[in-house]
Amino acid sequence: MSAETIARLHIVLNDIEPAIWRQVDVPVTASLKMLHDIIQAAMGWENYHLWHFEAGDRRYGVPDPAWPDHGMAAARNVKLAALLDRGVRELLYTYDMGDDWRHTITIESIGPGEPDQQYPRFVDGERRCPPEDVGGLPGFEMFLDAMADPSHEEHHRLREWYGGPYNPDDIDERFTRRALAAIANRRHAGKIAYLKSRAQ
Q1: Cβ atoms of residues 143 and 158 within 8 Å
Q2: pTM, whole model, 2 decimals?
Q3: CB–CB of 5/119 below 8 Å?
Q4: What mean pLDDT is reported for the chain?
């Protein structure tokens, strides 16, 4: 099997220090819808909310038929390679329009992948992403303070809401690798099914 072209992406959650970030290898043939799935798996989000990408003056997501002139192109119809061909090297990804989690995605390198490796693949990262529906940046800051301090007036309520302790430094790398491997396996199975259908 020949090596496919891979983009190494650096994904960082904006406006949070210390930084919450992931580095992943993604095939350039991936659609932006697949890239959304990859970001959700890599960061640890749970895919509960609306999302979109911005690249230059264009937006990509799930168009709403009720707003056909809203300027949102269908993410499933656009490949990462098409953006790279236009010279795009940085994208903005927004998840959950209420909490407004903005991620900057930087293309660090493009090159051949390993022939026997399935992609996407987790490379590196630091710090756990915020819980869903925590209330955006202000809510997350309060959540961190409360979870770190058993005497905080919100500690017990938030611990019960979250379902246990929260370690901001533990990204649960094993879970992240498995989540991305599941996407890679589905993609690989789809490619094999496609090749078999072409051979018939």
Answers
A1: yes
A2: 0.91
A3: no
A4: 93
